[in-house]
Amino acid sequence: MSYRLNPYKILRSVVILAVIICLGVLAFNFKKSKESATNEIKKDVKVRGKNFFKSKDYKNNLTLPKENIQENNKNVINDIKTNDNKTKNVDLQDIKKDDANKKIEDEKKNQEKAKEQQKNNQQEIEKQKQKAKEEAARIEKEKAQKAKAVAEQKAKAEAAKGPKKYIQVASVKTEAGARSITKKLGGNFYYKKTVVNGKKAYVVMSNMTNDQAKLNSMQKTVKSKYGSDYMIRGGGK
User: Fewer Cβ neighbours under 10 Å: the N or C end of the chain?
Assistant: First the structure.
């Protein structure tokens, strides 16, 4: 029985071998580059070894004189205090500044509120003045209307009574005689100066009226105090 080589198997073995060689080369290069980078870093950085506590530098640090330790502690404390004071000063300045700004803002707001309130008060005063003015005008209008209505009613009542009349009591030549008669008849009578046929005379008469009851009362007064020699005349005569 003869043995035949399978080319596909040979090719697969070659590929696997090549991959393994590549991986080995990559791993070797990575390790070499890592060591190189580590060495570069160690040049600038002091790396502490695992047995650092056995080194002389560490033992010397542990055996520093007390004066140096106390001085170092004081320096550290002073630095802390200085930083705290700076922080406090900055904080206080910020707080004062914020308070000042808040005070200014509050003052502005209060001024704006006062101006707005003053404006509202002025508007309210103007409204009240306008209302008072309108109310006064309304009252005056009502008064005028009432006065007009009363005058019209009075005129109607006077017109309903008829024409006005008066009593002509006497005509005398002297003012003293006219004054005497007028005084005797009372307050509803008076005299006036006139001219009759070119001669001066004084006429005694009553007030004009369209109230018949009042006219009758004045007639009784004339009859009782002067006599029946009188005339009743109309307003146009």
Answer: N
